[in-house]
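re: that complex we talked abt at group meeting.

here r the seqs, copy pasted straight from the sheet so there may be weird spacing, ignore it
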Amino acid sequence: MLKFDIEKREGLARVGVIHTPHGDIKTPAFVGAATRATVKALTMKEMNELGSQAILANTYHLILRPGVELIQEAGGLAEFCSWHKPTFTDSGGFQIFSLPDVKITEESVKFKSHIDGANFEITPESSMQAQWAIGADIHMAFDHLAKSEDKKDMEEAMHRTHRWLDRCVEENQKLANTAKKNHEKEQYLYAVVQGGTFNDLRAESAEYCASKNPDGFGIGGVFTAEGMDVMLKTVNSILPEDKPRHLLGMGQEPLDLFIGAEFGCDTFDCVGPTRMARNGSLYTYDGRINIKNAKYTHDFTPLMSDCDCECCKNYTKAYLHHLFKTDEITAKVLASIHNEHFVVSVTDKIRQSILDDNFQNYKKTFLARYYH
RNA sequence: GCUGGAGUCGUCUAGUGGCAAUGACAAGAGACUGUAAAUCUCUCGCGCUUCGCGCUUCGUUGGUUCGAGUCCAACCUCCAGCA
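got the structure back, here u go
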């Protein structure tokens, strides 16, 4: 069983430590999105230096390329990409939702590779097997997102997610038993709570997921912070306190992190910070700015004067502006360092503020300035 | 000086009688939440009461025509070849 120590509680919010075979994660924590076993534009050294504690890769993408066998051959995800800290994998379930031309049946999901059109099929069992081969510390159950916001669709998707969870749990147990027999390191399974914006469905899903006694929980199908507080309150009041909860895909907006932490989530992952960095949208305490805007041409001040990331300590906005306008690779590197550092450090500060009994004050001050 | 070719938005370019005029780049702005994203969208002659209207534009000046970036003439500039 995955070890999770809670140091402090404040309402639903908590500060804790997740102990994985690859080290500890002090929570709340922002997990870097490393979909294809890399955080786009960043080296693992840079990820380390900006303070990242963990990364999350995607099973779907790794099945397509390079194939999970290759990662297994490399000695697992951490060895393969040289990230010697905790790792997560997402199940590939999200791609059911996000890719076109996907055929979903009770048994499996069939799709064509977006790369070469080759036919693929994922089942809950094969997702578990793939994740064990990839070898991340924490796996997500193979879930199903609804095709619309319609309650009927939500309910159907949720129930399928639950049935698939049964299969994931069973398959995971087999794989865990085999690993134990072979004296291989442990890997852990998070069940994924669905139910969309319907709190009765969320409650039902949380109860079902909790009843399966997984190592932790993913909360999926969330796309905006609107209504997230109520939803998380519902879900996290039901989920067992002593297990970690990961809010899947949220964290592009600082508000997501504050709401998520306040209402009991321990880890977050989001592609937003690095994607926006590559597109020139950079975080500051006063909101996001587009560094490509002409007004930064002659701005020889750092992006943030009170940021200790490599980008802000060494470079000016004028320089970043120039790098973006000339489409230099370094533009994306520096911007990604900054944005990733921003969300990682904000989450770290949220952690500290809870420890200091200062969360509400920190939240109020931060959000008032950021969303002025 | 002669012969041939060319002059269209900041740049390169499409255009062979119905055109404020194609595409790309540049420029200006916006979007992005478990990454088919180093992506995508919008604006880009000027002015307005901006799902429209008016004005001025394709080297210059004239001409033919209901209508000219497109046809004709002269001139200017550039390129190539010959002197």
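couple things i noticed - The first helix of chain A runs from residue 44 to 49. The mean pLDDT of chain A is 96.
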